[in-house]
Each structure stands twice: as C-alpha cells, then as structure tokens.
Amino acid sequence: QSSHPGAFTNPAVLRSVLRLCRQVGAKEVNLVSWQALKNWESTGLARVAGEEGANLKLIERDEANFKPVPIPAGKALTEARIMNVLSDHDVFINVPVTKDHAGNKFTGTMKNLMGINSPLNNRTFHKENWQTDSSAIEHLDQSIADLNTIVKPALNLVDATEFITTNGPFGPGEIIKPRKGVAGVNRVAV
Predict the structure, then answer these.
(1) How far, in Å, CA of 37 to CA of 49, rounded?
(2) Which of 28, 33, 45, 81 has the most other CB atoms within 10 Å of its CB?
(3) How far apart are CA 173 and CA 156, in angstroms?
(4) Residues 6+ apart with CB under 8 A from 19
(5) Cα separation of 169 and 174, whole Å?
(6) From its phi and psi, is residue 167 left (phi > 0), alpha (psi between -120 and 50) or beta?
(7) d(CA 19, CA 54)
(8) Radius of gyration of the chain (CA)
(9) Is 151:116 a contact under the CB 8 Å cutoff?
(10) Is the pLDDT of residue 14 over 80?
C-alpha cells in the first residue's frame, strides 16, 4: 500500500462503505490486512476506521496466520494461503482502488484479493522480469485468476474517484479523477 494520491482507496469511499454496512445492520465491521499500521495511518484510512467504529485488524505476516487452501482448477497455482481470520466473518466486501500496475497494467477487484493471501505465497505470483517479460506477466495474470477461483467476495466496490494511470501500483503517477465507483458481485464485470 502506498500513501501517494491515487494509489490507495479514498478515505471518503471507505467512510461511505462503513456507513452503508451499519445501515444494513452490521453489528461489527472489521478491516483486515497484513499491511503495516503506518500504511493505514499515512493514507487516512485508520482515522476513518476509528471515527466510524470499525475495527482495524492487522494480521502479522507469520505464516501461522494463513491457512493453506487448495486451488483445484489452478493453472499457475495449486495452493493459496488465505488469512485465517477471514473465515471468522459472515460477509466479505472487497474495496480496491482501480489503478495502473507495472506488470499486468491494471489492478482492481481480482488483483486486490492478493491482500488476503500470504505475502510469502504472493511471491510465487511474480516471476523474474514480471514487469516486462510477457510470459512472466501471463503467469502473474493466471495466478490472480487462479486465486479468484477459491475466494468469492459477497460484494466488490471499486474506488474510481481518483487513481494513478502511470507508475503503478505505488506511484506517484499521473492521476485522473473520474469521481466514480463501480459495485457488483461479479468481479470480472466490475
């Protein structure tokens, strides 16, 4: 996660999602991540979570906090390592920012799910020259698709209010501001 503008979910979008969760009756809302607290603080997302009464649950990058999940239909990956805590929740909402990506040129609903997979396992997504070698980029794309066969968010809400179109995924980069959001259950369609 980066604190460069257009490289992270807009705090106002997060605030809206948290309020909508409460409006539909969520008794508890948790933001789950293995990203460091400094990332959440530098982007303003930790402040919004606190103001809206959401729990920021930061998972240590210890492999004991991730359970192996087979990927039966996987072409590039045969196993993922998903956060244990994810199974403690009734509903999983995926809230990525859309943006440029150095390897596959685009990140959104499907790529964002790498954030619930073990960082160590995520390394297998990236082969040498993953930003320039077409076979390495294809492997990255296929790994993301494989992961998405076993993880199914109930809702995907993509922040397209402002995002980087160059130098992604961390930026800084050129920013456009469509001021849009796209939501749905089908990650590919969204």
Answers:
(1) 12
(2) 45
(3) 25
(4) 52
(5) 12
(6) left
(7) 10
(8) 16
(9) yes
(10) yes
- HEC letters along 36-69: CHHHHHHCCHHHHHHHCCCEEEECCCCHHHEEEE
Tens digit of pLDDT for each residue in 27-41?
999 999 999 999 999
DSSP for the chain reads ---STTSS--HHHHHHHHHHHHHTT-S--EEEESS-HHHHHHTTHHHHHHHTT-EEEEPPS-GGGEEEEE-TT-SS-SEEEEEGGGGG-S--EE-PBPB--TTTS-BSHHHHGGGGB-HHHHGGG--TTTTT-HHHHHHHHHHHHHHTTT---SEEEEEESSEESSSTTT----EE---EEEEES-TTT-
Query: Residue 129: left if φ>0, alpha if ψ -120 to 50, beta else—which one?
Result: left
Q: CB–CB of 171/7 below 8 Å?
A: yes
Dist CA 21 CA 8 (whole Å)? 20
Task: Say if CB 164 and CB 171 are below 8 A apart.
Answer: yes
Q: Which pLDDT score is estimated for 175?
A: 96
Query: Going by DSSP bridges, is the β-strand pair 155-160/93-94 parallel, antiparallel, or unpaired?
Result: parallel
Distance CA(142)–CA(75), nearest Å, equals 7
Residues 6+ apart with CB under 8 A from 51: 15
